[in-house]
Design a protein that fits this description.
The chain has 140 residues and is an alpha+beta fold. The protein has one domain: Nuclear Transport Factor 2, Chain: A, CATH 3.10.450. It is 26% helix and 48% strand. The chain is built from three helices and six strands, in the order ααββαββββ. The protein has a six-stranded mixed β-sheet. The longest helix is centred in the N-terminal third of the chain and has 21 residues. The termini are far apart. 21% of the residues are buried.
Length: 140
């Protein structure tokens, strides 16, 4: 109709940040549980991952092969913290997070890697997904 204005509410920073953090959590929980399909669900269909030890992969087919190859054979945990959303809109966001990778060794949990994720995410149908996920591990 002529003269009718449709208002679409914009997402607040809090909504974007919570969506980004929920995607990051879904990714690490699925990764640690070895649920490849659920890991892939956190990526855009043309999404990419560039992670030392995993390599550089783009698209669900390449990502599936890579994540299937690193399914955990023993308990493991990725602890992601200090997530900071640095840029955002209703449909795109960038975030940086610290990560610790732990595994049980000699009867106790030990930190094996310390690093940082740099992520670009896209939102479609109210679901945030990785468009690009990069990791770097710090040397000791």
């Amino acid at each position: 109709m002529r003269g009718l204005v449709t208002v679409v509410a914009a997402k607040s920073f809090a909504e974007v940040a919570e969506g980004v953090k929920a995607t990051i959590a879904a990714y690490v929980l699925a990764l640690d549980d070895g649920r490849t399909d659920d890991v892939l669900a956190t990526f855009c269909s043309d999404g990419s991952a560039d992670i030392p030890g995993l390599g550089s992969h783009r698209g669900h087919e390449e990502l599936r092969a890579a994540y299937d190859a690193v399914k955990p054979q023993a308990p493991q945990r990725h602890l992601v913290l200090n997530t900071l959303v640095t840029e955002w809109s209703d449909h795109e966001a960038k975030a940086t997070s610290d990560v610790l990778f732990l595994m049980p060794m000699a009867g106790r949990w030990s930190v094996l890697l310390v690093g940082r994720y740099t992520d670009e995410l896209h939102c479609k149908d109210d679901a945030w997904r990785f468009h690009s996920r990069k990791a770097e591990w710090l040397e000791t």
